[in-house]
Amino acid sequence: MNKILLFLSCLFSFCLAAAEYSVFLAPDATPAEENAAQELVNGLRRIFGSAPASNTFAISRKDPGKCLFWVGQSGEAAQALGMKDFSDLKPDEILLKTFPDKTILLGARPRGTIYAVYEFLERAYGVRFWTADVEHWPVHEKFFRPGIDHRYAPVFQRRYVYYDLARKSPFCVKLRTNRYPLVSPRWGGSEEIIGFVHTFGLFVPAKKHFEAHPEWFALLGGKRVSDGQPCLTNREFRKALIESVLAALRKKKDPRMISISQNDGGKTFCECAECTRFIREHGNESDLLWDTVNEVADAIAAEFPDVQVETDAYSFTLEPPKTIVPRKNVVVRFCSGLSDKTRAIDSPGNEKKYSIFKEWCKFGNPLAVWTYETDFYHFYMPNPNWQGLLKSPRFFADHGVIDIFQQGSYAGPIADLSDLRVWVLGKLQWNPYQDPGKLIEEFAKGFYGKAAPCILDYIDHMIVSSRKGTSGISAFDISDDDLLRARKILLDGEKIVADDPVLRQRLRVAAVPVNLDLLQRPGLWEKPVPALQGVDWRQLLSDQLKIMAEEKVSRLAEDPFTPDMLERNIVLRLAWEKGAPPVPGYPEGTRWKQVAATDCQRYGVYREVKDPDAANGKVVEVDCTHATWTSQFPQPPEGCWDVYVELQCLGKEQNPSGTAATFGCYDVKQKDCVLKGSAKAETILAPGYHIIKMGRLTADENQFLYCAPAINKTVEHLRISRYIFIEAERTSDGK
To answer: What pTM was computed for the model?
Structure first.
């Protein structure tokens, strides 16, 4: 046995000496295979740049016998592997195989080979692609070629880590995700879903069809509206939908999937007699949706038999249909919704969502999922959803899901360890059966260096501290003491790497969510606790804003919310306005606060207009053609307040009349308005701005103020200037 091993070792060494370090690439290689070969050459040069003959790392299209690496599909590779061809490779499957005289790296087209190269660099040489900007490349002075025998097809055929940090190519390719748009053929292209999501309005846009065919659109409150769901029982609408969908497919060279899905938001289905009857007779809204989708799917199958149709089990269609059975060419995308994120979907507390998902499994259709992994109102806040985040991929893989979409934040690296989340999620989407804890530890050591133990302590502490995830605006209930403890852990980490400016900055970034959460807790600053003694909140806020600017962070929520807006909102919570309130009748010395509507979140169609007569010099202007809650201010400042909104409307007519605005305070936890009111056009008519009382409010973190235009043909625009909070005493009933 020892003689045989010695012979093989000598043979292997001879092959290394004689073969040079070239990379064989077939003459008919695809653009992605050519790029994969170049990525391997570039990688080997980085690893062995100082090794003798390192300049022989090069691509060759002939003489494979003289090359140590064979990259991509070729007849020579098939013969060496004992394969007739590569037709049995599954989507994105990779194959890595070392022989004494060569290493073969290939995969299913179009992108498997480039995945194989990255897999090899990671497994063979310890390369790590931590982020789009941070990678780890070991350096060796002597060339070596480790043995490897690895064949793997990913469980999820389509994979999407939906964070801004994951979108950059080639980083998304190095993560092995494949649904990012605009990835060029050189990087393997992407798995396109035509339309992406919420496509009724895309294929039959109200802007184009509503005026001529109002009957195609939802009847709500006795009126046809353009911003709801379509009227799905209308035969002409279905015909127009099918024609538009087929036209979209014909424009594509090789379409594989198209989304036929309901419009977004809480816009309910049509209330016309026919839609109401259908829902009543068949079971629920999902039956009506699926009856429509099935008809479109049949038309698609007749012309494009290999195309899959995707639709969403989402919002009021989350539950399966009672009587309509989905066609087999339809992929059901289960949108998990707001659940208890402190635990996995199949854990106690998520029984309802888990049981609904299991019901969908019974149909036997291909399954996809869309999970929500951030606080959409506050990308920048602590988000300790680690249990649900990391356990869900394996759960979904066990239940036959083929497509996973995990929607995260768009706030760069300040969104609670988002660099770590992106890397770990990419790894788990590629192979959900890896140990999430080991992946977290690996990233922490590689990215945070000596401060890794503090990062791991922070994660463990926040898991324990988040007592229960909720569906409210503030997704996790974390006490003041626990949040202060989290800050100390991260400050300790910063001290450990104080002599390394790169690592120190990463710790400062990691602490931003905790600091911003503390800055939104007025009680901690009015009478500072020992942990905050000597900390000036204005300086702390300035530091966080500076870090965000250094990291080029401009978006802090799903809808428009910028660091400047956040700054003014925090100042609102922690500071008081000078002078008397702008509303007469309050005693001298009454304290008050205000926030401009332009510093609040905005939804729907609106404009930001400069107006020197407004308190802030600019206002949110919206047309009175819809009733969208345009202006929203989540989490009003803690305390008991008389709340006012400052408004102005401009009339189309000389004497406009009727309701021009509605406003109130909605409690997400109670799912009801705790304040509700409206303003008549004649009371807020320009010129000048008019302060209207909304009511008395004992503020709660689950609440948000809103102001909306009313549909009124006599009013042209509504202008929303500011919200005013005047301190009030609680009554005996706590109000």
So the answer is: 0.88
